[in-house]
Each structure stands twice: as C-alpha cells, then as structure tokens.
Amino acid sequence: METLDKIKSQISENSILLYMKGSPKLPSCGFSSQASQALMQCGAPFAYVDILQNPDIRAELPKFANWPTFPQLWVGGELIGGCDIIMEMFQTGELQPIIAEAAKADEAAE
User: Fold this and answer.
1) Where do the Glutaredoxin domain residues begin and end (predicted)?
2) Which of 19, 22, 53, 88 is deepest in the core (most CB within 10 A)?
3) pTM value?
4) Helices marked H in 43-94 — which ranges?
5) What angle do CA 72, 73, 79 make, to 5 degrees?
6) Which helix (H) or strand (E) is 101 found in, with range?
7) Are 36 and 42 within 8 A, CB to CB?
8) Distance of alpha carbon 7 from its chain centroid, rounded?
9) What is the pLDDT of residue 1?
C-alpha cells in the first residue's frame, strides 16, 4: 500500500487519531505528551500512530495535511491541529465535546 493511501485509510478508519512521537503511555517528546494527556483527559478511546516507527508517514503526512509539525490530531477525518491548538481547545473546553461526539459516532457504528 502506498504511504498516502495508508494515511488516508488510517484517518478514515479512526474517528479520533493522533499522529505523535512515541505512544500515549510513553511519549517521545513534550508536545506529544501534552497532546495525548489532553486527549486521555477527554475520556474517549483514541487511536495513535507513532511516527518514529513509521518514517514513511512522518515524511508524507505533513505534505498531505499541509501541517508541518507533530503531533497532529485528526477527528472525523478532519485535521484539528497540533499541540498548541489541542491544548488551547482543551483549556477553553472546545475539545471535549468534539471528542465526545466522535466517540459517540464510533459507538453507534459498532
């Protein structure tokens, strides 16, 4: 599978997807740590892709997303943004309902 197809597939198959360095339990950078912590505090399950283990995705995703940095949060097939945006939305209370809605859609699909 081509890298771009893999990315599109991951985004379409996961309502809440975080591209990050490391894993939520063992993040490899401070920004990924903050982003995954905020998502975990939203209380909904989410998928993640460790871009350090997937250099092809690390190289291609910024071009596809038109977003140069990681982490990247995708919800419902749409790019939400990186760490700064995730944290700002979390602190203002904007992120929680978006995550809850996406999680509810996942439950309904099962």
Assistant:
1) 16-80
2) 19
3) 0.95
4) 55-65, 83-92
5) 90
6) helix 95-109
7) no
8) 12
9) 75
Q: What tokens does 61 get?
A: 């995703």
Summarised one tens digit per residue, pLDDT across range 29-83 is 999 999 999 999 999 999 999 999 999 999 999 999 999 999 999 999 999 999 9
Q: Are 72 and 66 in contact (CB under 8 A)?
A: no
Backbone angles phi, psi at 39, to 5 degrees: -65, -45
Segment (H or E) for 36:
helix 30-42
pLDDT, tens only, 51-62: 999 999 999 999
For residue 58 the two structure tokens come to 């690390």
Question: Domain-by-domain residue ranges, the chain?
Answer: 3-109
